[in-house]
Structure formats: C-alpha cells, structure tokens
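pasting for the record
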Amino acid sequence: MRHARRRVVRRVTRLAAVGGLLLGGAMVTRAVASEPPAPSIGVPYAAQPATSMGTDLVSRLGTSRTAGSWVDSAGRPVVAVTNEQAADEVERAGAQAKMVRHSMSDLKSATATLRSAPRVPGTAWALDYKSNEVVVRGDSTVSASDWSRLTEVAEDIGGFVRMERTEGTFTTRVNGAQPILSTAGRCSAGFNVTDGKTDFILTAGHCGPDGSVWFADDRGREQVGTSLRGSFPGDDYSLVKYDSGRAGESADVVAVGDGKGVRITGVADPEVGQKIFRSGSTSGLREGEVTALNATVNYPEGTVTGLIETNVCAEPGDSGGPMFADGIALGVTSGGSGDCAAGGTTFFQPVTKALTELGVKLIVAKQAGGGTGAAPAPSASQGAASPGSSAPVTGEDVSGLLTRLTDPRNVGPGLLVIAGSIVALVATRWIRAEQDRKAYRQYYSATWG
C-alpha cells in the first residue's frame, strides 16, 4: 500500500512538472512565506472593468470613426481611425492614431454576411485591426468547392476580406490530457471560481456535456467533480463542481511546470498585440500574442463566436487550460490548428463573459493589506510579458492533495438525507456516478493498461 501510494504521488508530481493544471491549477501548491497564505473568496468580474486607453478611445469615438485598437511592440496604444478629427482626439489623449479606410461598422457588417452564408466546418474568421481587414481562414478539411463558394461571398463583400488557407485542422483540443479525465474526454482544468457557497473549476464547454463525471486518475478512484451549466457550441465554457464543494488551499494558483505556479490576482479582457501565456497539461507553458478579438470558428461540432485569437500554440489535451498575463486571467483554451512543433493558431473563450453568464467569481490572491480589490486590467506589456508571481509545487503538497481526494468524506454526494424525496434524489445521483465510473474504467482500460 505504501509503495502504491508513492507511485501515485510520483505520477501526479510528474504531471504537475510538465505544466498540467491538476484540478484547476489549484491545490497543487502551498503559498510560500513571502506570498499571501490563502486566496480570497473571489473577485467578481466588474460590469465596468478597467480598460486601456485604446479601448476607452474606441468606445468614446464610436464604431463609425474607429476600427479597433491594439498595443505595439513597445506597449503603446494605437487606435485605427477613419477621419482626421478622430485622429486629433486620439493623439491629444496620448495614443497613436492610424488612418484606415474601413470602420468597425464595416468590419462587423462583413462578419455578419459571412455568418449568414452556408456554414463550412473548418473555417474561421476574425477582425485584423492592424491590417483593417477581415481574415477568413480555411483548414485542410475544407474542400475546393466549399472554399470557392466562400471566396465568392468574400469578394461580394469587398476587398477588405482576406482569404487564407492554413495547414492542419481547426479542432477542439480535448484528447490526450491527463489532469481531469472522464468518458467525455481528457482536458486541462482552467481557473477556480466560486458562487460564494460552492467552488468550481472553470473549463471548456466542449470537454463534456452536463453530468460528465471527472476523475484525477485513469482508474476512476479519485473523483473530482461533475460538469454542469456548460455552453457549447455558441460559447465554449462549463463548470465542474467539486465533489467536496471546496477548491482547497492555493485555489488562486495555476501550475506552469518546473514545480512552479502563477498566482491569479484578477480578471480582464485582453488587447490585440498583448503578450500572453497559456498553460496546458499536454504542452505546458507557452508564450504568444493576441492577434484578434471577436473571432468565429466553425468547428465540426458547431460554431463558436466571440473568441480571442492568438498565435500561441496548443495541442490536444490543452482544452480548458488558462490563458493569462501578469497574473490576470484572460481566457480558457477552446481550440485551434497546428501544434507546438510547427506552431499554429489557438482560440480562447474570454473569462469575463463566462463569469458573467455563469454568475460566479474568480478565486484570486488576496491583495496587499489583506483585503480584496476590483480585478485589475492586464498591463500593456513592453517586450516580453511576465507570467506573474510564482510558488513552488512540491511532492508533499501533492501527497496532501491525494489524501484529501481519497478521503471518503470528500467523495460522492456526502449529503444528509432529511426526507424521503431527497433519499431518492441522492440514490439516483449515486447510481449515475457509479455508472459513469464503471464506463470510465472500461473506456480507458485499453489505453492505460
């Protein structure tokens, strides 16, 4: 028994070391002495979050006089404008103005026309603020005839729609992950969130339908929780409710590999040009840049809109993993094309929308002085961004995690039966969990041995 326990601890330690987000990146690390000892109850996504100068200017000047904003390589805000008056206002505010031909209204009208055309799986489009174009991409699964028909639609819109073929396929990144596993697939957990009473893992919606039971091991012994309140397609987010109801210590940390974790201190929307990091259980910590916002992807399973487009790589199994910068939560991995050998495009579900739609708060690190504050916006990075403050991941902490996971008090419904109707409800849930557990073991027996 002691040898078996050591093998499990070594296995989970190895998973954390390659960048896996075991149970949402939380509970795998304790705070170091110089860090806050415990996370706060959570910071809600504010209805009016702090925004950058560029975003503020675009909002104030309107969609007919602007066409988006971004940060340049030096971290300076740039705003695309359609007339000299708007350019003067931008420059008086201290930002750079770039004169463009097509307004945001034009760009959005183009995407509306693309959405109304017959759906073609394997295609995606996004607004490229820097080039003042709508970029339409088709992967290797799109036939020549489908691509030709979509090209005709683009030509009818105008010359500011750019058509590009891309290698690989646009797929959701669900297969091959190790941190959380079920018969629905294998995924990376994202961020820990709470509704004030119960804690959850925020992950990708395509990882599994409502009712999917998730485990931390391939034998179905270490049950983590159950999926609920997911949205996919359309959006790509879901919650996994912890069976114990609590995320535990260091719920504000996501693992990034090499025995380190990043403390999450807030949540915000990203900007085009912003340097970001993504962590996942398959490919670990990777760095990239936000290339577009409000992207649409036509996965084989359905269309997802409002995504963040980046040039950071991802691979199957990274689904649901977190995207962040300077300790600020930005998104959870949805899908993309390519891999981390050749590179590719990866799309993310914005965290802000998921929190708003689900009515939950992000669990974040306590602010200096012991209180909680409003979630700050990400800083415009000058040069390379920093992941955020880090804390070690140790074998002892993972051992404690396994002890808590395998404690019978933390597994199963664990509810007090106070009426006959509740007895029936609990029994039904227990039977469902046992059925999922057996199916899960059978599902993975061929590949895990």
